[in-house]
Amino acid sequence: AFAQVSVTIDAAKPGPVINKAVYGQFAEHLGTGIYEGMWVGPESKIPNTKGWRNDVVGALKELHVPLVRWPGGCFADEYHWRDGIGPRDKRPVKVNTNWGNVTENNAVGTHEFFDLAELLGAEVYINGNLGTGSVQEMSEWIEYMTSPSKSTLAELRRKNGREQPWKVDYFAVGNEMWGCGGNMKPDHYADLYKNVTTFLRAPKEYRPQIIASGGHTDDVKWADVLTREVKNDMAGVSFHYYTIPTGKWEGKGAATGFPESQWFSTMQNTLRMDKFIRANKAVMDKNDPQKKVGLFVDEWGTWYDVEPGTNAGFLYQQNSLRDAVVAALNFNIFHQHADRVRMTNIAQMVNVLQAMILTDKDKMLLTPTYHAFRMYVPFQDATSLPVAVKNNGKYSVGNASVPQVSASAARGKDGKLYVALVNTDPNKATDVTVNVGGAGAGKLTGQLLTATAMDAHNTFAQPEAVKPTAFNAQASGGKLTVKLPAKSVVVAAVE
Ligand code: AHR
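^ thats the input. predicted complex w/ alpha-L-arabinofuranose below
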């Protein structure tokens, strides 16, 4: 007979805490990610608070957004913070050379960003400019934001409306230094990093955790060199990896209307994240056995061909059930590496790449990815628990296959035990037995996200085509069996 898939949670062996920052967001000056999507300005007819859309902020609050990374991305290495302070109508107008060569009027700057963070109750992650900036410029930005003194810069902050220093939770020295940040080698960057951090002075209570810009995909040199060369002042090394269905930058694949072969390759390519994290951890464990430095996956998500007829520089794409499954698979991987992966940021929050929210003028919709983030909220700051999956099925296309079920479990801050289950197979449902510490479990209460079509998605005409539904299972004969539908995500409390 066919052995049933079983998931066994070892509640007696708590692992590391899943830092809430693993559920971080990323908002870059890119396309309509900030302008239109979130920022409409205080004069707009669209209801807003200090220029930020009430509808979008309200929906994001439900995700308990722990932190937001800003202002880029590639944009960060051409961003000069002084352009974004003072009266908005006097700010210089620039060209966003990375993203569509559109004008950037600098309406959103440091003060506006901190307003957004405050509205969301989120921590801030500011990405500094090493590419076209200077040590002095970064050092002065930190002084402007965090100095309680009467220095000219601190007084300028007060004149611009902020009396108290801000706490800058995280600050990164450049972005993608191997590419858009300056096409450097890691050794060169390691020296620049030490140079910059020497001069990032802030009072202890306002001082950011500093992040070094690291590698991507299968390149572990950055994590290796940085953890070897930099001995202090580095909370984390960043790492970027995007899921591209075809694996090729030219012809990435469409967000909807794709063939099953691309559903499959999307699953396959997403699961590579685990291998990349392991490879980075291996070099970090050698250089930093005490695990002082985190691996911050500060860009991840699906990257498709842009929607037909939209600006290629705006990275606007639809978001389907497939994206929700991708998000859940990544979460389950991140949880497993909670010892090092202490922050991640999905790219990006609104209207860009794998977004939570899409907007069209005054309308907005919540994407399937939004729903996955919402379902996983109990995992923020939860204590990870070991999970063993036995008799796992295989989802195969041709000669290749991926595991059918992905599972993760944690003890939430509320004391409850949570389990997350993902079925990667778009055609076959499966039964999964859930055991806790070998003893079995009585019932499971939570939510299910699935749909009939692989590319089911929400539109402005039908904004609720994909949304979670209540999901329960009850033990019978001492056995808790979950009927996990094809292409689905379940997050539930187990009692
Ligand atoms: O998220 C879009 C872009 O992808 C970022 O600006 C850059 O860091 C990466 O290449």
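The first helix runs from residue 54 to 61.
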